[in-house]
Amino acid sequence: MKEENYRLLVSQVDALVAGETDATAILANVSAALHDAFPERFFWVGFYRVVGDELLLGPFQGPVACYHIGYGKGVCGTAWQRGETIVVPDVEAFPGHIACSSLSRSEIVVPLKHADGTVCAVLDIDSAELAAFDDTDRHYLEQVAAVVARQLQAASENGQQ
Ligand code: SME
Question: What is the atom index within ligand 1 of the atom nearest the CA of 100?
Answer without folding.
Answer: 5
